[in-house]
Design brief:
heterodimer; A: D-Maltodextrin-Binding Protein, domain 2; 18 helices; 15 strands; about 45% helix; B: mainly alpha; about 75% helix; transport (chain A)
Chain lengths: ~450, ~300
């Protein structure tokens, strides 16, 4: 309750500002457009004088903060008109919300892309279509799925900074000992998992394949040839494809017994089941590369794109971050210069990639041998070719977390049948999608 | 007499002066937000772009919201087990450690230590201890030939695990409150009871327990409130899973408010929760009053 109270207080304090805003909500959006022009001129004038100071908010601390600061410093050195400063905000989204109403919004914001469908309709982000067109940047240079995730209505709200997708990590030694090749289909995956699993009585010693994250349902559904949602905003998994996924899981868990519920829960980095050789194969993303590479010879692993489903369908879920310009920022044009420099320039995108070990959203940077010739990056690049973003519905994450995953967990623990699981997930999911659809 | 009145007046004025800062803070940070939240619960407030009056829409939606009532069932189950155990264990510990003997302070400190750890850090360590294959708990069970469950991942044991972890963390501070209460029980009561031939149980039943009534009331009320507001531990230990069995109202309120930006609806949920807390505290007060008066 305490936390809640603080928040309400905050809201109360902001009440004046909020009501003020709702009065001129529309004019504010229009005003933003004018402000851009003004600033454009202003920056022209200030070229000879003091540089424009920009604030860049992000919620990456530690290593991430250093990586951001490397980029910011490089940008500041590259010209003398704009000075960017990175500010670490632990509770960034909440602060951004209050700042948007009270006028303290930053100029550039580090953005978890899937949030776009929830925030863009509220006019807190500045559309960049005009800026993009004015500079003649081509949309084809970016992953189209990532741009789609930054789009609401017909407007684009930012550029992708990183892209990621899950692929299959496998322990080379365990697979070699069991005499199996890295799988390319569901059937091969099942066989490889069976052969690499080791039980000692009732104790699972080596799990062949991780089924610990029911949140990956989306990915399996794509591999089975399905999709999570229909065009008109309803769930789309209570069908043959959904059934195929759950039948596959059921076989792996209960007949082949290649995994045990809760097996990996709570294992931190040093005790990660994959690192300690207790797990032969798992789906995970490029963010684990630096961790796993640290173990060098002790952990020899390989990566292949996700195995295809029964009819040969490929599937993986694309995620990642972008940079956006808050509507409340005062220097839209300068903020755009910074974003463009970072995300739409081959050298800088590559510098970012090498600094942070992320895959940039700018495709020309991926032509570099750093990516093309690397056995760890290559499978991810291949996977990204067909990876799809999560449906851009403001209620999607709630549907997934509160309707689908709980039911999948009950299913994994044999508490309900495949039919019930899909039916309940659909009913509850449709309800949640509907409840959270209205964001205007 | 008149001088006394003056003194009283003077004292009263000073007293008001002293409590003014606190009251101002209380009004600004508690009363105003509560009234605001009540108002917001009738709007579609989203922090940024809108705050229209929507009458009872939020509350109507609440009635349809199965998950919200599931979370209430979850914390109800939690409270029914947690609150009595909390009182029982902390009182038991307090009575064990309420002696003036060499080394007893060490044991008091040790029992109090879990309270000092941050909820999140402690929960993280417990995740480790409760790991099905490599955790200490199941390893110990393994020595006696029992295959322990996947404590946090199974629907049957997830809530029990949370109860255990939160108990471990909260009995320490309640123990201190009880020790203070026990030391406030006058010795002559026990002495005269002993002279009258009361057994140890009689002395507990007719002296200690009634004398501790205000303490028990405090402890039980605080645990009821804490139980209904369960959040951190449940969030860290299980993220509300498996199958929603450990999701709590505060978790939902947070999610609706901050992730979905539906502050209006979240306020409505918060108000229902506040009413529930009020109702249970009231029942608790009634039960506590209905017991026989102190001596």
């Amino acid at each position: 309750m305490k936390k809640w109270m603080t928040v309400m207080t905050m809201s109360a304090v902001l009440l004046g500002a909020a009501t003020g805003c709702s009065n001129n909500g529309n004019s504010g959006a229009n005003g933003g457009g004018n402000a851009t022009n003004d600033n454009g001129e202003a920056s022209g004038n200030s070229g000879s004088g003091k540089p424009v100071e920009l604030t860049f908010w992000g919620d990456w601390g530690g290593e991430g903060q250093k990586q951001f600061e490397t980029m910011v410093d490089a940008f500041n050195k590259s010209q003398d008109k704009i000075r960017v400063k990175y500010v670490l905000q632990q509770d960034m989204i909440t602060k951004f919300l209050t700042a948007s109403t009270s006028g303290g919004a930053p100029d550039i914001l580090f953005w978890d892309r899937w949030r776009t469908s929830l925030y863009a309709p509220k006019n807190v982000l500045h559309p960049i279509d005009d800026l993009l067109a004015a500079d003649g940047l081509s949309r084809d240079d970016f992953y189209s799925e990532a741009l789609k995730e930054l789009t609401y209505g017909d407007k684009l709200y930012g550029l992708p900074l990183t892209v990621d997708a899950r692929a299959l990590f496998y322990n080379k030694k365990i697979l070699a000992d069991a005499g199996v090749e890295p799988p390319t289909t569901w059937d091969e995956l099942e066989q490889a998992a069976i052969k690499t699993t080791k039980w000692n009585g009732s104790k699972l010693e080596v799990a062949g394949f991780s089924l610990g994250d029911p949140g990956l349902f989306n990915m399996y559904l794509q591999q089975a040839g399905g999709s999570m949602m229909t065009e008109d905003g309803k769930t789309n998994f209570n069908n043959e494809q959904g059934k195929a996924v759950l039948t596959f899981w059921d076989r792996l868990l209960n007949e082949d017994k290649v995994y045990k519920t809760g097996f990996e829960q709570g294992l931190g980095e040093g005790t990660d089941a994959f690192v300690t050789g207790k797990l032969a194969m798992q789906y995970t993303g490029p963010w684990m590369l630096s961790t796993y590479k640290k173990y060098g010879k002790d952990l020899e692993f390989g990566i292949v794109p996700p195995p295809v489903g029964p009819s040969g369908d490929k599937g993986s879920v694309m995620g990642g971050f972008g940079l956006v310009i808050p509507e409340g920022g005062k220097h839209h044009q300068e903020a755009w210069e910074f974003i463009k420099w970072w995300t739409a320039n081959k050298d800088n995108a590559l510098l970012w990639a090498k600094t942070s070990l992320n895959i940039p959203g700018y495709k020309p940077a991926l032509e570099d041998p750093f990516f093309k010739d690397d056995p760890f990056w290559k499978p991810f690049l291949d996977t990204l070719e067909f990876a799809k973003i999560r449906p851009a519905h403001p209620g999607y994450s709630v549907m997934e977390n509160d309707a689908l995953i709980p039911n999948l967990q009950l299913f994994q623990q044999k508490k309900q049948s495949i039919e019930d699981t899909l039916k309940k997930s659909q009913q509850r999911g449709d309800q949640l999608l509907q409840d959270n659809a209205d964001v205007k | 007499m008149s001088s006394m009145g003056k003194l009283n007046q003077h004292q009263a004025r000073t007293a008001y002066l002293f409590i003014t800062p606190t009251m101002l803070l209380f009004v600004a940070f508690t009363i105003v937000p509560v009234v605001m939240a009540l108002y917001l619960s009738f709007t579609n407030y989203d922090v940024v772009s809108r705050m229209d009056f929507v009458k009872l829409d939020n509350y109507k939606r609440l009635l349809q919201d199965e998950l919200f009532w599931t979370t209430f069932k979850n914390v109800a189950f939690y409270s029914v087990i947690f609150v009595p155990l909390n009182i029982l264990i902390s009182l038991g510990l307090a009575m064990l450690l309420n002696f003036r003997r060499y080394g007893v302070k060490l044991f008091r400190t040790m029992n109090y230590l879990p309270t000092l750890t941050s909820a999140v850090a402690a929960a993280t360590v417990w995740i480790w201890l409760l790991h099905p294959e490599f955790g200490l708990v199941n390893n110990l069970l393994g020595y006696v030939g029992v295959t322990g469950p996947a404590w946090l991942a199974q629907t049957e044991t997830a809530m029990l695990s949370i109860i255990l972890v939160t108990l471990w963390q909260s009995v320490g501070s309640n123990m201190v409150i009880y020790i203070a209460g026990l030391q406030g029980v006058p010795d002559y009561l026990y002495e005269s009871a002993k002279l009258d031939g009361a057994t140890a149980w009689d002395r507990f039943r007719y002296i200690t327990w009634p004398q501790l009534r205000p303490t028990t009331f405090l402890v039980s009320t605080m645990s009821i409130i804490g139980a209904l507001q369960l959040f951190d531990q449940a969030f860290v230990l299980t993220q509300g899973g498996p199958g929603n069995v450990t999701k709590t109202p505060v978790y939902l309120i947070y999610q609706q408010g901050f992730n979905q930006l539906q502050m209006g609806y979240a306020s409505a949920q918060a108000f229902v929760l506040a009413l529930a807390i009020l109702a249970f505290s009231f029942i608790n007060m009634r039960i506590s009053k209905s017991e026989e008066p102190i001596v």
